[in-house]
Amino acid sequence: MTTYFGFVQLEFGFLLGPADGRFLVREPSSEDPTRILVLATLHASRRRGRRARRGQTVTDAQPEAVPTSRATAIMPEPFADRTDAASWLESLRSSEEALDATLHEGLRALNRALAAHRAAQATPHVRDVSPEVALVVRVGFGSGEAVAEGQYAEAWELPHGATRVKRSMEAPDERFAALLGGHQTALAAEELVLRARADLDAGRSREAALQARIGLEALLAEHTSLSPARRAALQDARGPVGDAANVALRGELDAATLAGVAEAVEQLEAALRAHRLSTSSQ
After folding, report:
1. CA distance 170 to 165
2. pTM for this one?
């Protein structure tokens, strides 16, 4: 009897960083894996390293072959049978919320691996990933060994750009040009709050609390045009956010403390959104 496992699979047009292989992803102090992560490199170019050659003279630039990285996050618990597995996959097709939750858990396992690689290799240049930067996103089911080798009983490949984009009055392209051209200057808090959001989404609660604290202080210090009501709300958040950061220095956050950090990050994001709207109208 075939045993079926659900999976999320993503492919990227760059090297992820960690070595290819199969890895068990567990929460700290837990023996039960949350996902089985399979990393593989496909179509890697065979260039000689820059240090091994003197270079060459060129008269035109040719596109360089790039590797494709595949990451498959497999659910550790099997389905009862193929009918159960097919029903699960159909539920993802019919529910954006269920699909988002499944993608989130798969991405959380992958980004945890990338964070572990950053720490193990002491390199800051390995980035978190999201469905938006993936070449392909698939969800499906199959036998464990077959899925690990890229073969499925049934899979659904999401259309490119299928992840929802929130509507906004912002003009990011115009602001990008203004920032790059030196007509505007980004706030330090913008980068710090983005890091806090990335940590929250990846399940790095301690890092999120610490980033939220410095992001909040930076925003209050450098954003001089905050409305009185918004500034007062952010100042009220300093105590809970500071307490959460102190807890993070000692260990993991409990659910209530983490919820407070998430609420504070949402406040910071709202303040920065208002800032971007005001600068785009100038």
Report:
1. 13
2. 0.86
